[in-house]
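Project outcomes to date are best conveyed with an example. Our students and postdoctoral researchers have been running inverse folding experiments weekly, and each run begins with a structure described purely in tokens. The record below, which covers 297 residues, was selected by the lab manager from last quarter's runs and is presented without edits.
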């Protein structure tokens, strides 16, 4: 996506992607201005703004795409079986943590009966396979990795307890928003077009397969088959539309953050979200690109 935006920018904007293995590293790079925009979990972005870090959420990365996974042959068959067991989460500032609290509430359990431990996402599948943890709550492709390897089973997808669930959001530094709004708009437009391309009607399956092959080989350095699994089994496992930030979605996240102790005061939607770039991208169309093409428009 960033390659397409850079290549077809009419104003010479260049976006350089960087891969991080954990959210704390993303946070530090953003705060130190080593990176000006980032995809990060929504509660972390809100917490940063509440702490006075000059950043704003301008768009979503995707909807759904998180799940709680247990060992296929293990003792955990229902949510109640997680009581007293070790569950890995990517960060205490993550929707993957919040979904455990929400699911616990809906099952009549106190989520503090679970033993939650923070773990870098790339490590969770191996830890589950080795029996070092009993479950993990993570975003894709790590649930798919455990499933595909044969030892993991999805206990539930986040959307089961949280309709319209979101995880990753696009955060941009306030100084970039103020001084280079055209670059921010171009970035959001490109993400919007990429999302529409991945949800493009009858071509949806083929586009996702191609994206998995391309991204797996050139960006994630992962087996493309893993990303194909994450993007197609089922086809709505991860959704890329709608990606505009909606007030009600984020107010729910803030409420859950307050209830679970990771936010010590209320913060208004306008303080941490800038909707004008999503509004500017509302008329975007999918990229005109098919596998084998040498250009995208």
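After processing, the design step wrote out the following sequence:
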């Amino acid at each position: 996506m960033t390659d397409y935006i850079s290549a077809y920018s009419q104003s010479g904007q260049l976006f350089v992607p960087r891969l991080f293995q954990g959210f704390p590293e993303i946070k530090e790079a953003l705060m130190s201005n080593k990176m000006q925009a980032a995809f990060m979990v929504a509660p972390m972005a809100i917490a940063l703004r509440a702490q006075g870090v000059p950043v704003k959420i301008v768009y979503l990365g995707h909807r759904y795409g998180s799940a709680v996974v247990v060992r296929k042959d293990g003792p955990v068959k229902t949510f109640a079986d997680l009581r007293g067991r070790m569950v890995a989460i990517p960060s205490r500032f993550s929707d993957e943590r919040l979904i455990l609290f929400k699911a616990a509430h809906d099952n009549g359990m106190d989520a503090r009966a679970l033993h939650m431990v923070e773990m870098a996402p790339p490590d969770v599948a191996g830890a589950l396979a080795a029996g070092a943890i009993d479950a993990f709550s993570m975003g894709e492709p790590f649930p798919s990795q455990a499933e595909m390897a044969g030892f993991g089973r999805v206990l539930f997808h986040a959307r089961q307890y949280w309709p319209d669930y979101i995880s990753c959001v696009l955060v941009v530094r306030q100084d970039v928003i103020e001084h280079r709004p055209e670059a921010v708009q171009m970035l959001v437009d490109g993400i919007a077009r990429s999302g529409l391309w991945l949800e493009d009607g009858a071509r949806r399956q083929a586009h996702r397969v191609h994206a998995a092959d391309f991204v797996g080989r050139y960006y994630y350095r992962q087996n493309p088959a893993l990303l194909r699994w994450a993007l197609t089994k089922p086809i709505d496992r991860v959704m890329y539309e709608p990606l505009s930030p909606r007030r009600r979605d984020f107010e729910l996240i803030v409420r859950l953050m307050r209830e679970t102790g990771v936010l010590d005061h209320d913060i208004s939607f306008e303080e941490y979200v800038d909707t004008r770039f999503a509004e500017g991208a509302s008329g975007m169309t999918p990229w005109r690109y098919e596998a084998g093409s040498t250009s995208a428009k």
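The two ends are 12 Å apart (CA to CA). The mean pLDDT is 91. The training component of this project remains on track.
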